[in-house]
Amino acid sequence: DGGITQSPKYLFRKEGQNVTLSCEQNLNHDAMYWYRQDPGQGLRLIYYSQIVNDFQKGDIAEGYSVSREKKESFPLTVTSAQKNPTAFYLCASSIGLTGEQYFGPGTRLTVT
Amino acid sequence: KQEVTQIPAALSVPEGENLVLNCSFTDSAIYNLQWFRQDPGKGLTSLLLIQSSQREQTSGRLNASLDKSSGRSTLYIAASQPGDSATYLCAVILAGKSTFGDGTTLTVKP
Question: What is the pLDDT of residue B94?
């Protein structure tokens, strides 16, 4: 059953702690993306990766970091430098950078 | 910078009505345009992808059109059902960098 998994579904952290969100896909897609969604708003691009060991900053990369060591995995670390980390985080993948994007179920991060 | 606008922000219709959702974008230099559905607290489900060389795409009761020259796309939903209630988002796809609208929240009343 192909798809994208994100874990955990809910995540709670104290301010000042780094936290890593998991994203795994078994669609054999080369491209992967991380987005952030705030209430009542559309998605904003954090980082994207076209291929293993390569990634590019999106519109709001400050305070975030990623790695792409395997084709199927694209973890996102929310660092303590991110000023407003509480949000809904969505991971997506596509065959190429212009292809149809498929999304995971999301991780809701709450930082207090 | 690409900007994507979706109007209206919310729409309520009785069951069975045909409806149109609008998406406009400021820069016509796009690769593709994609329509999504999002249920509360969930991820996005892809509905239709229109490539820049196409003018429309159809899937079941859904029909999406694209007019790059005017910077507009529409999503037509025929014979709406309560199960269609959700937020609908459009996204303009460039090479890696996509820009999303804020969405239209649709409520279909039985």
Answer: 86
